[in-house]
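Blinded run. Sample ID left blank on purpose so nobody reads anything into the name before looking at the predicted structure. Input follows.
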Amino acid sequence: MGGGRNHQSGSGEVKLFTIGYEGATMDSFLAALTRVGVEQVIDVRQLPLSRRPGFSKTPLAAALAERGIGYVHLRALGTPKPGRDAAKKGDRATLETVYAGQLELPEAQAAAARLRELIAERPSALLCFEREPGMCHRTLLIAAEVEGAEVEDLFADAISQA
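Blinded prediction complete.
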């Protein structure tokens, strides 16, 4: 077995995880990632800052590193403020429109290409704030830019049910 480097299924498709840290503790977040063998977190927040202790970029990267999990921030794949505001209000139509515009930008296209490279290398999880993937741009990102991936949404506050 290739040391965990090849995480493609027999059909050749890549497995990709997503996780939101809303409502999570750092312990539950890290446990959810390690439980499924995530080796790399790809932060797709435009602003990697958080009022939740430990979830801003620098402390988050350090906590992940202690568990042997890599951290990459792809700012250009984040949602601009109007999209974040729409998500907070539950306005998915506006979120979709704003985010589609974001993905057309050259820097977003370059970041999407990097994203595809990263997820092909090792088991990865896309990170954002929202707990529910359906109200988060990470679902829109995967639909637009990651063709054929098998996606599993992780819930940091639900690990005891697993």
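Unblinding after everyone has recorded impressions. Residues 1-11, 158-162 have pLDDT under 50 and may be disordered.
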